[in-house]
Structure formats: structure tokens, C-alpha cells
Design brief:
By secondary structure, the protein is of the alpha+beta class. It contains 3 helices and 3 strands; from the N terminus they run βββααα.
């Protein structure tokens, strides 16, 4: 199965979501700093289908955040912390919704 560009698999079989951070330096042509340019958030699953679904949802959030970052002018440290917290909260919300959906208890033959 092909992994999306924003998914990575740990050596323990857990999927991670990776999102690149935009360059927040005031002079982009200067030498890059040694700070990490990606955020990595555990999706807490070993299932590739579930990981793909969660990663797509976080990618939509990431696109929205990236569009608004250029206007805000925050420094890299604040940006990294805030985006990581946002991704983690959104992931927990997604997992709560997934856990609340229960399988059908009534056999399909009884319904039809």
C-alpha cells in the first residue's frame, strides 16, 4: 500500500502525520536555522486505512493554517508549538468521533 507524503511509519508500526512548516524568517534568503521544519504527530494507529483518513483530515487543517500563517508574523517556536497543539486537539476530536460510532447491532436480515 502506498503511503501519502504526509504519513510515515515508525519502526514499531505506528503511523505518524508529518506536516512541513512554512519559512517564518524575515529574510528567507539568509542561511536556514537548525530548527526542525516539520511537525510530527502520532496518529496512534497501526491501521493504514485509519491513518490515511486521519492524515487527510489533519492535512486540511494544515492547509488552512498555512494560508493564515503568512499574515500573522509569529516566530518559528510559537508557530511550531501552536500548530502541534492544534493538530493534537483535532486528532483527539477525530478519535472521539470514531470511537462513538458503533457497529450495527441488528442483523441486516431483520431490517429488510
Amino acid at each position: 500500500m502506498k503511503l501519502h507524503a504526509y504519513l510515515s511509519l515508525s519502526r514499531h508500526g505506528i503511523y505518524y502525520f508529518r506536516w512541513p512548516l512554512p519559512d517564518t524568517r524575515s529574510k528567507p534568503h539568509t542561511r536556514p536555522s537548525t530548527t526542525r521544519r516539520t511537525i510530527r504527530v502520532s496518529l496512534r494507529t497501526r491501521c493504514p486505512k485509519e491513518a490515511g483518513t486521519l492524515a487527510r483530515r489533519l492535512a486540511v487543517c494544515g492547509d488552512t493554517i498555512t494560508k493564515h500563517i503568512e499574515v500573522s508574523g509569529v516566530n518559528h517556536g510559537e508557530l511550531r508549538t501552536n500548530v502541534h497543539e492544534h493538530f493534537t486537539e483535532d486528532l483527539l476530536d477525530s478519535l472521539d468521533v470514531t470511537a462513538s460510532v458503533r457497529p450495527l447491532q441488528t442483523p441486516l436480515g431483520d431490517i429488510f
